[in-house]
Amino acid sequence: MLLISTSERTGGGAIAANRLLHALLANGVEARMLVRDRQTSDPAVSAVGSLWPKVKERLRLMWLLRTSLKHTWGYDLMSDGIDIFSTREYQEADIVHLHWVNQGMLSAEQVKRMVSSGKKVFWTLHDEWPYMGFGHYHSDAMRHRTLSQARRMTIQQQLSSRQIHFIGCSEWITRRAREAMPLSQVTHINNCIPTSLFHPLAMSEAREALSLPKDGRIVLFCAQNINDERKGLRYLEEALRQLPSVTPLIIGRGGLSLPPERMPLAYAAADVFVTPSLEDNLPNTIAESLSCGTPCVAFRVGGIPEMIAHLETGYLAEPRNAADLARGISHVLSHPECRSAAARSALTLFSPEKIAQEHLSLYLKDLS
After folding, report:
1. What residue ranges of the chain have pLDDT lower than 50?
2. d(CA 320, CA 313)
């Protein structure tokens, strides 16, 4: 089988796809991953194509939205893509599993051709684009409502969505997809977290390894781009002003840079992980933090309430309410038992073996 992603490990969708690849391999499945942006020498991952389709698609978006490049990142046309059909990886695959394939990786016409070829096609919903057809989340689509509605109708016609089995990695996005595509098959399966990397570590050792203060309370926030408005950093900053005794640790573009393999140390070093996202599906960061035994505080949005057990493994604050976010941080700091509860819940929700078997069962069911 073949997993397809724009990137090997840049962005939440790519990271989740790569983790699923290795979970499947560990469970005896013959699988490969095809990407445009390859970042490692992993023999199970192959690169294809160039950035040219992405450039063409971005230029079309700039013209369509009458805007600059930096204001196009919440949108995709899926108008241009890389020719993957001549690759050995694609030709040998009986199952094709799409992940995040925007920004010039695949076009809608190519997906239609893929379905028409007779291959079994699955598509994990890492965001809302596959049924929105323009914006990656509802708020993006609403900024250009008329255009989004027209694009959605066009994309749904091209994708032949009845013949694609969609996988929602949260119950929230699964419900949204079923409402938007009532004739399509949509199954819920969580993303997995590699427990060999993300597991509880001693806080004192983690802080020493990262040269962080041994004493005091540390609040962790991380995101690919901390200045992405959707990630809600300004609400955390406002909450922290109400908690002057805590120390923030902010990781991501625009903050502290830390290699991915050292992120478990950051989670273990923190007393609490906070992700004040305004929209989100099933954030890898929350799953990673819980797996490391670090409780999480977040707004009650998207798929996040499925991940955090309120007052047990963390705290679910009212959206856009910095004062409630501060209350959540205070609650976790005063309830150390949340740490062991967090680690236990992660084993149930995000086990690689469990998630791999759920995918394998779904593949086999569709092949039969």
Report:
1. none
2. 21
Specify whether 227 is located in the same domain as 255: yes
Distance from C-alpha of 5 to C-alpha of 14, rounded to nearest angstrom: 6
Residues 107-124 pLDDT 10s: 999 999 999 888 999 999
- Say if CB 348 and CB 182 are below 8 A apart: no
**26 and 39 inside one domain:** yes
Which pTM value belongs to this model? Answer: 0.94
Tokens coding 8: 């090997």
* Phi, psi at 327, each rounded to 5°: -60, -40
The kind and range of the H/E element at 52 are helix 52-65
Other beta carbons less than 10 A from residue 142's beta carbon: 10
- Which CATH number characterizes residue 358's domain? 3.40.50.2000
Using CA atoms, how far residue 26 sits from 21, 149, 354, 357, in Å, is 9, 42, 12, 11
168, 236: one domain? no
Question: What pairs with residue 259 in β-bridges?
Answer: none
Same domain, 137 and 56: yes
